[in-house]
Amino acid sequence: MNTDLHFPPYAPGRVPFIGHAVPLARDRLAFLQRLREHGPIVRISIGPKTLTVINSPDLVQEMLTRKSGQFSKGLLFEKLKLFGNDALPVAEGGRHLRRRRLMQPAFHHQQVDQYVRTMQTTVEPMIAAWQSMGPLDLKTEMQLMTQNVVMGALFSTIPDRKTGHAILESVDTLFAAALRRALLPLPLLERLPTRGNRRARRAGQVMRAAVGEVIADHLARPDEHDDIVSLLLSAQEPDGTPLADEDILSEVTGLLAAGSETTAVTLTWLFHELSRNPDLERQLHSEVDAVLTDEPLTTKTLSRLTFTRRLVNESLRLYSPAWLVTRQTTEPVRLGTVDLPAGEDIVWSPYTLHRDPGLYPDPLRFDPDRWLPERPQPPKGAFIPFGAGKRQCMGNEFAVAEATLITALIASRWRLRPVAGPAVRPVGAITLHPSTLRMTAEARTPVRRHQEAA
């Protein structure tokens, strides 16, 4: 008999009937951080629901790679089907593999090189418009910017600001509904005509209408487009039939939602940290002024923005946008010395992992130089802002190029200064975003190399 097999213990503080609901509701980020003190795997409960939390990078890596076939994406991703049933971000099994293979060419590094020009022409007029605007709601501005980049590069269309706002509000509403349903998994409540459910239904209708117009335009003018929507419209199922209209709508909607939110909040945190670290801001300005010219940007240009890239990596570490990730066991599985039954709901947090003092020296310090190649790097599996294994985000190269480019273009023209107000704190919604962040854009004149030489 093997006596080292055991089930994970419950975290302290469980209250009858409600479990750990109170500390989770009070501050879910702090609560998850404290769970690390209770071992690599620990259970929590929310009402009648039990969740297993994994705190060990080795076990997370094992789950996402070697034993990935024994897990589905889990509770949160099930609720994200609000954006489209069985779209790539939430699809499972063979369907996920087929759709990933279909869309992977659109995110090949050679294709990303072509997207960079579209990114630049999309972003430059948006940041130029800040000159006539007052204090900026920075998260909203970044969301509109990254949303337009995704739509311009992948869908060949850029909405006007009013339409962009309507799409953005719909995305936020659906994300909030998905997280609420994941944290309070009572399916009956999802079917009741509550105010929140009605708002989610209307938001879904707005998203479908906006994406439907994009698809209709591609159908009306097929020779004028060569993008991921065109790819989906020309694709076939294994039996040779075209993709169903609903499937195409779901895939485009899922790409729009997934492709803009995470990069936007990463950029928002990055400029928040720059406003608190003037030395880092000066270093960024120096690099941008030395590298950028009047020529169009390319991936080769972006590769020379090494400090800018370290700023992006450090923002992804300290403020992991996808702060909460779920899985569910599809069969009995052993992780470490712990046995998990089939149907076990799993939670892990990149936010907690990336702030582990055992993995990162001085983990709460924003230090882009920790990514210098001569510095000790975290062990494999300890930095995974885009996931790992076969479910790793296939748009990671696109997202990093986009974040690097936007950071550089903003820094070449503006200094962003915070507006007096409440202290900025992280909020664990569907992504990790600032509670509030209003900033003013102060114009700056780049100091180019030829100017220095003169």
UniProtKB/TrEMBL annotation:
Its cofactor is heme. InterPro entries: Cyt_P450, Cyt_P450_CS, Cyt_P450_E_grp-I, Cyt_P450_sf, Cytochrome_P450_Monoox. The keyword Ribonucleoprotein does not apply. Heme binds at residue 393. Keywords: Heme, Iron, Metal-binding, Monooxygenase, Oxidoreductase. It holds the Pfam family p450. One of its GO terms (molecular function) is iron ion binding. PANTHER family: BIFUNCTIONAL ALBAFLAVENONE MONOOXYGENASE_TERPENE SYNTHASE, CYTOCHROME P450 FAMILY 4. Belongs to the cytochrome P450 family. This is Cytochrome P450. It comes from Streptomyces cyslabdanicus. The gene is cldC.
